[in-house]
Amino acid sequence: MLALIGKHNRLFLRKREQRNVFLNLLRYAAPYWHVYVALGLTVLASIANDLLLATFLMRLTDAAVAGDLSEVRRVIGLGVGLVALLALVSFAYPYLNVIATNAIQRDLRRDLFSHILRLPTRDYVAMHSGDLVSRLTNDVGGIGNAIGHNLVLILRHLIAALAAFVYLVKINWQMALLCSLVGPITLLVGRIFGQAMRRNNDSLHKILARVNAFLHDTFSGYVVVRAFALEGRFIQRYEQNTSQILTYEKRQAKLQGSLDATANVVALGTFHPHQRPWRGLRR
Fold first, then answer.
1. Buried b / exposed e across 3-13, counting CB within 10 Å, b at 16+?
2. What is the distance between the alpha carbons of residues 127 and 130, in angstroms, rounded to a whole number?
């Protein structure tokens, strides 16, 4: 019983620490609130454009079938506006996303570099320079994406799913209810694969830190390597390290592909066994 309580407390403290870390990281996004506001407006415009495109195609098809040329002209005017909006959103979204993400990464690298230089000598010498370089490059890049690009992408998908659900309710509420069943299943699949991908990514970052340390030692000791003819051994070791990196990258690609395939199968599987709502529409 005491062991279970201890395990529960450790899990609670770990989740609390993760929440505190995330809240501290949000401080880096606060100075760029205006960029995030612009990103939010861009996301809303993109979602509206997708929904209006469905309406455009529906109205254009109905007008063409009915032979109503005046309606076709009006709908084509709407289509031109949608194309212009699509072009604007396609430029603004990646541009603003890069500004927000890279600015956060820059601030993180600046503060981390300042912190490293102010460390006590005892703590500084306990870490390898290659590990420090890996933290300033790979780790900061991952953290910046987590509170930049990835955060915006998650919010975009959530808003798009809600808007699509409301739009589908107006068309056919039975099909909307059916599609809502996909959400919990997709979240469960994402959680299962996400944990495996996170563990694999952690291992990959550790190997990258080790490789950076090895490269630093090799280049700084170049004269020694040549003097004792150690080129072959160092090349072999570097090849082994890069092969390990490739192995973990392949595993990450397999997990990502499996996640995408499973999500697509779950989404398409909901439409196959349930055809009654569409039968009512055909009548």
1. eeeeeeeeeee
2. 8
Q: Is 51 exposed, middle or buried (0-12, 13-18, 19+ CB in 10 A)?
A: middle
Q: Is the dihedral of CA 187, 193, 195, 198 positive or negative?
A: negative
Q: Answer yes or no: are the C-beta atoms of 216 and 129 closer than 8 Å.
A: yes
Give the whole-angstrom CA distance, residue 160 versus residue 8.
36
DSSP conformational letter for 283:
-
pLDDT above 90 covers a percentage of the chain that reads 2
Each residue of 127-144: pLDDT tens digit?
Answer: 777 777 877 877 777 776
The alpha carbon of residue 184 and the mean position of all alpha carbons in its chain are separated, in whole angstroms, by: 19
- 129 contacts: CB under 8 Å, gap ≥ 6: 213, 216
On average, the pLDDT of the chain sits at: 77
CATH of the domain spanning 1-171, picked from 3.40.630.30, 1.25.40.20, 3.40.1280.10, 1.20.1560.10:
1.20.1560.10
Mean per-residue pLDDT, 148-166: 75
Residue type, 17: E
In angstroms, what CA-CA distances link 191 with 50, 142, 188, 199? Answer: 28, 19, 5, 12
Residue 48, pLDDT above cutoff 80:
yes
Residue ranges of alpha helices (H) inside 118-147 are 121-125, 129-134, 140-147
Contacts of 36 (CB under 8 A, 6+ apart): 29, 100, 152
**Cα(115)–Cα(190) distance, rounded to whole angstroms?**
35
Q: Which residue has the tokens 């340390």?
A: 213
